[in-house]
Amino acid sequence: MSKLETNTIDTISGSTNLTLGGTNATDITIPSGVTITNNGTQSGFGGTNTPAFFAKLGSSQSISSNTDTVVQFNTEYIDSDSKYDTSTYKFTPSAGTYLIGFNVAIIPSSASLRQFVGRIRKNDTGNTVAGSGIYSSSSIYENGAPSWFNGTGIAEANGTDYFTVKVYGYDSGFTVQAENYPCYFYAFKIIE
User: Fold this and answer.
1) What sign does the dihedral 131-152-86-123 (CA atoms) show?
2) Could you tell me the pTM of the whole model?
């Protein structure tokens, strides 16, 4: 093995690309304790957390009792790859692993609301990515005060899978509040 000791490697005049290794090189080893300082741009390594989106509820949404209903998060703040649809309220990402979450604030229509479930559904089936809920022997109605529900989970997507947030109230309708309450749905790709 040969050893080259130098302080600077640069391209020859008129050339813009510097190549380390050649047709026989398979690995470049950087020893432990060495710091790589990047003062330029990098490509071909690392990763990105996209697609990513963040959507909020534009106006309050009334939900009927005993009805599994998609929350209409129709106001986008971030949608890096146009993977969230503000008319169907679906996130349909490219293949990968995603962190997905939601937060809703609800106000029951009456004191008869005793159970509530909010969850992120994959492909609108029984696949629940994350969720939260409440069961009370009496009522979760507190003189018009909101109740908060949220969930965060990790899910695999194959490129055609989609995700929505659905809510369900037993025995009473309710309103998902938008004004002055943070009701949102978000996701981003986890770097693998």
Assistant:
1) negative
2) 0.76
